Every structure is written in structure tokens, then in C-alpha cells.
UniProtKB/TrEMBL annotation:
Residues 29-476 form the Major facilitator superfamily (MFS) profile domain. GO terms for molecular function: monosaccharide transmembrane transporter activity; symporter activity. It is found in: Membrane. The chain crosses the membrane at residues 22-42, 86-106, 118-151, 171-192, 204-223, 285-310, 322-342, 354-374, 386-404, 424-444, 451-472. It comes from Dovyalis caffra. Residues 249-279 form a coiled coil. This is Major facilitator superfamily (MFS) profile domain-containing protein.
Length: 499
């Protein structure tokens, strides 16, 4: 058996060409774990379509419905209502609060059980939301969904990164974001189908959130825990058996010894949350947090949450706005496939820098069209409206193979094992915090900033591109347990933080 010491990890003296063979069992495990992304995506896509349905507004937000019917409604302000925005954003506040609890459960009981808990909370939330008789019941349902999102978004990316091979880690982890985009497309399709089912179409839209939750529930029962988590729980024999199953080969001694050595090192560090504040832990914490902030300040979730509302604002009618949202959802799914194939070939930094240029140009052009052509009342001429749709699709196209999937991938792979669950929880909670802020503020921002909101997001994208150029290290092809030696200690800026 290969003997690997902690000192070998610290000095980077490890052969990383571990034998592996792609097999059905590993693919099934990855597919079931990625269903947590399907849950998350379905919720992102469903809320915008539901809030544009008249029957939903009449029951829960009659003031918004009356404002929508006014003859000379303000295009930018007709949906500006804090309670309506709370319907969308409450989920992310709950996800923020639950992410650190999910971190503790993930570390103590494993990734698999955390995903099982996520599915149960999501099933409960789907039932409460679809059966809601008042605003209180509706918000409680959203909070339950939020806890499910917090648990799922913590455990699933870690599961994928810890079970993927070094050469395919980018592609495998991006399955999470691919399933997010599939969930959004699924939600947009459901909203289009239920928009004509008067009185209770919105109930069906919200209730079908149980479908991805059920898939995750089934998967969480049948898949195995990650080898890293099993070693953390002192189940070494089982961990080695699972590693053999996932790799599809018998010769896993070298890789398993590296996992054991990394965990041995982690046991010498007490208090992972406290350890996050140490100087040497700051680089992955800062990068993981900044990526989550940047991901939200691209403006993507403002577009995906409120796509039907946005397209109504620029002149598409109700069904037309839902079709437009369906188109952007379709573009989102197809474009994410680009990241699956390129993340481990072109590298993370290249994709982030190129996409920043495309997204910046798209946001600026959309802003210019709206400033010059969309007044407070009336709608855009047809040509300009379709031009906006084209550049929204171009923006979604660029985001889907860059800041979307890589915003989850990079934080899941850059923390050492001793701070991995706590560090990733910090990243997830940052994502949920700023998702909440954008979801709660976007419609009000659009009312007060009008078309200027697109220039606001484009300014952030410019900053993001510069940070990707100068501060983001490349993690392509580096084993997950060797990030400190091969990434952080080699970077021109971050190496000064390392011991």
C-alpha cells in the first residue's frame, strides 16, 4: 500500500495521476446529487412567472393588481411592492440562516444526510406554498423551501467536488449549475402552461416544486456518502469501498491515502469556523465570498426572477413575456453545457474574463435602448423590444458558461479539508444574502433607477472582469487537497497570506 504523509501534502510531493474509469454508478451518484440544483433552479424560475399571474395577485397582492390595471401605469413601477418582493426573497433569507446549520450537519453527519434533509424541507415547502390560503402560510412555505435550498446548496457542490476525478472535477461540479438552469427552464415551461388555468394555475406551478425534491429524496437514500466524509467519521473501510465504486477500479490506494493524510492534518486544527479567520485561511474565504457577491451583481437573478415582469415592462404582453422567459431559460441550459466541456480545458479564469466583456456590452446596450425608447407609459416599438430580448439572451448565454457555474465550482474546490464545510457555508450564505438583497430590492430599484439599473449592473461587471484578471488564481487540474501548495502559495498576491 502506498504510504502518504501529511508532510508530503504540505510540500506538494504527490503523484496525482490516480487511476479511474468512468462508470454508471458514479454518473448516477452525480446525477442524483445535482438534483439539489434542479430544486434551486425551479424556485428561481417559478417565482417570477407566478408573480405575473393575475389570479395570484388578486388573492395575495390586490393592491399590485389594481396598480397593474391603471390606464396610465408606470412601466417601471407597477410591480414595486415590498410584500410581493418578500414572496420571492424570503426563501433566500431562510437559506442564508440555514446554511451554517447545514455546514455543521454536513461535517458531522455527512453530505448525503444533509441532501436528504434538503429534500424533506423542500417537499414541505412545496405543499405549504401550493396550498396557501393566506399570505402568512405562503411565506412560511417559502421559508421551508429556503431551508431546503440552504441545505442542498451546501451539500451538493461539496459532494460533487469530493467524488469527481481531478481531470473532470470542473465538468462534474458544473452539473449542479446545469441542473439549476434545467430547473429554471422547467419552471418557465410550467408557468407558460399554467398561466391559462384560471383561479388555481399558480398552485400547480408552486406545487410541482415537489418533483425535483422527490428526485433528490430518492437519490439521497440510494447513493453512498463521499469517501472524504466517511474518513472524517472514522469509517475508513467503507470510505475505501465507496472510492473503489466511484472510480471503477480496484487500485485506489494512493488516492485514499491522500484523503486520509488530508483528514489527519484537518484533525490537528480545532474549530473550523475560528480557523477561517486565520490569515492563511483568508484567500479562499475572500475569493469564495467575492465570487458570490459578483455572481448576484451581474444582475442575472434580477432577470431570471422577474423575466416575465421585465418583458411585460418592455412591451411584451402576458403570454409573450412568458414565451420570452422560456426562450432565455432554453438559452441558459444550452449555454451551461459549454462550461461542462471547457472548464477543465480552457480554465476558470479565461471563461470569467471573456464572459465579463460580453455581459458588460449586453447590459450597456439594453440600458441605452430603454433610456432612449421606453417612457413611463406605453411600450417599446416591436423592433427595440426584440432587440432587448436578443441582448438579454446574449447576456444569459455569457453568464451560463462562466459566473453561474464557476461561482459554485471555485469555492467548493479551493478550501482545505479542515475548513471545507465551514468555508463553503460562508460562501453559500454570502450567495443567499446577496440573492435576498437583489430579490427584495430589484423591483424598487427599477422603479427609482429606471433604465439606469442596467448601467448599475454593467459597472459591477467591469469590476468583476478586472478582479478575475488580477486576483483570481487558476484551479484547473489541481487536486482538491493540494490547493494550498499549488494555488494559494504560488499566486503573486495571495502567497503573502500563507504561512
Amino acid at each position: 500500500m502506498t504510504s502518504i504523509r501529511v508532510a508530503d501534502i504540505e510540500n506538494g510531493r504527490i503523484n496525482v495521476n490516480y487511476p479511474s474509469k468512468l462508470n454508471c454508478y458514479a454518473v448516477v451518484c452525480w446525477g442524483f446529487a445535482a438534483c439539489a440544483g434542479l430544486m434551486f433552479g425551479y424556485d428561481i424560475g417559478i417565482s417570477g412567472g407566478v408573480t405575473a399571474m393575475n389570479d395570484f395577485l388578486i388573492k395575495f397582492f390586490p393592491d399590485v393588481y389594481r396598480r397593474k390595471l391603471r390606464a396610465r401605469e408606470d412601466n417601471y413601477c407597477k410591480y414595486d411592492d415590498q410584500k410581493l418582493q418578500l414572496f420571492t426573497s424570503s426563501l433566500y433569507l431562510a437559506a442564508l440562516a440555514s446554511s451554517f446549520l447545514a455546514s455543521s450537519i454536513c461535517k458531522r453527519y455527512g453530505r448525503k444526510r444533509t441532501m436528504l434533509g434538503a429534500s424533506l424541507f423542500f417537499l414541505a415547502g412545496a405543499g405549504l406554498s401550493s396550498g396557501a390560503q393566506n399570505i402568512c402560510m405562503l411565506i412560511i412555505g417559502r421559508i421551508s423551501l429556503g431551508v431546503g435550498v440552504g441545505f442542498g446548496n451546501e451539500a451538493a457542490p461539496l459532494f460533487l467536488s469530493e467524488t469527481a476525478t481531478v481531470k473532470l472535477r470542473g465538468a462534474i461540479n458544473i452539473l449542479f449549475q446545469l441542473f439549476v438552469t434545467m430547473g429554471i427552464l422547467m419552471a418557465n415551461s410550467v408557468n407558460y402552461g399554467t398561466s391559462g388555468m384560471h383561479k388555481n394555475g399558480w398552485r400547480l406551478s408552486l406545487g410541482l416544486a415537489a418533483v425535483p425534491a422527490f428526485l433528490l429524496f430518492v437519490g439521497s437514500i440510494f447513493i453512498d456518502e463521499t469517501p472524504t466524509s466517511l474518513v472524517e467519521q472514522d469509517k475508513e473501510a467503507e470510505g475505501k469501498r465507496v472510492l473503489r465504486n466511484i472510480r471503477g477500479v480496484e487500485d485506489v490506494d494512493a488516492e485514499f491515502e491522500q484523503i486520509k493524510a488530508a483528514n489527519e492534518r484537518a484533525k490537528q486544527v480545532k474549530g473550523s469556523l475560528k480557523n477561517l479567520m486565520k490569515r492563511s485561511s483568508l484567500p479562499p474565504v475572500i475569493i469564495g465570498t467575492v465570487l458570490q457577491v459578483f455572481q448576484q451583481f451581474t444582475g442575472i437573478n434580477a432577470i431570471m426572477f422577474y423575466a416575465p415582469v421585465l418583458f411585460q415592462t418592455v412591451g411584451f404582453k402576458n403570454n409573450g413575456s412568458l414565451v420570452s422567459a422560456l426562450v432565455t431559460g432554453f438559452v441558459n441550459v444550452l449555454s451551461t453545457l459549454i462550461a461542462v466541456f471547457l472548464a477543465d480545458k480552457a480554465g476558470r479564469r479565461f471563461l470569467l474574463r471573456l464572459s465579463s466583456v460580453i455581459m458588460f456590452v449586453s447590459q450597456v446596450i439594453i440600458g441605452i435602448i430603454l433610456v432612449t425608447s421606453l417612457k413611463a407609459t406605453g411600450s417599446l416599438p416591436e423592433a427595440q423590444a426584440y432587440t432587448v430580448l436578443i441582448f438579454v439572451c446574449l447576456f444569459v448565454f455569457a453568464f451560463a458558461w462562466s459566473w453561474g457555474p464557476l461561482g459554485w465550482l471555485i469555492p467548493s474546490e479551493t478550501f482545505p479539508v479542515e475548513t471545507r464545510t465551514a468555508g463553503f457555508a460562508f460562501a453559500v450564505s454570502s450567495n443567499m444574502l446577496f440573492t435576498f438583497i437583489i430579490a427584495q430590492a430589484f423591483l424598487s430599484m427599477m422603479c427609482h433607477m429606471r433604465a439606469g439599473i442596467f448601467f448599475f449592473f454593467s459597472a459591477w461587471i467591469l469590476v468583476m472582469g478586472l478582479c478575475a484578471q488580477w486576483l483570481l488564481p487558476e484551479t484547473k487540474g489541481v487536486p482538491i487537497d493540494l490547493m494550498v501548495e499549488r494555488v494559494w502559495k504560488q499566486h503573486w498576491f495571495w502567497k503573502r497570506f500563507m504561512d
